[in-house]
Amino acid sequence: MKSGCYLIAIVIVLLLFLFPACEGPQGPAGPAGSPNVRTVLSVHRSSNQSIPDSTETTVLFDQEGVDAYDAYDPTTGEFTVPETGDYAVTFCIDWVTLFSAFDLVSYRLQINDSVEGGIELSVLMVADQDEARTLSRSLPNLSSGDVLKVAVYQGSGTSNELVGTTEGGVSYLTIDRLK
Questions:
Q1: Exposed site from 94, 135, 148, 176, fewest CB < 10 Å?
Q2: Residue 169 near residue 93, CB atoms below 8 Å
């Protein structure tokens, strides 16, 4: 059996030696490429943010990595869409505190103060000491002037905190313009 494998390997080497790859003239250059995706916003929480009990709260991403159009306001957590088109919106929300059974945690990507066209996700905790973390992505078609924000709600009976980078986790928002 081994001698058959060696014979096949020898034949392949001989064929490669006898019929080397041919090189011809270089073809014409193709059209200039353009990226299909452009990151227009990349922001995260640098420190924890307190979220009151039973109150929908806008997440204030206070550290900007990219803000290509100066369209994000870290004091309001709002991103104003600079140009009409298709976007990929991704956010990750991580909590410092573990939740108890039957606590409710909700996440919303709001467009013009509505979840229509955005995301609404509610999670009812089923066990004590349960982690609540979400990674969500939406692909909305947005118009210039639309306002996006991420909001959270938690009903645990007390305030809880979103993770900032100081806790080793990350809560972030990224918006990419699809071309």
A1: 135
A2: no
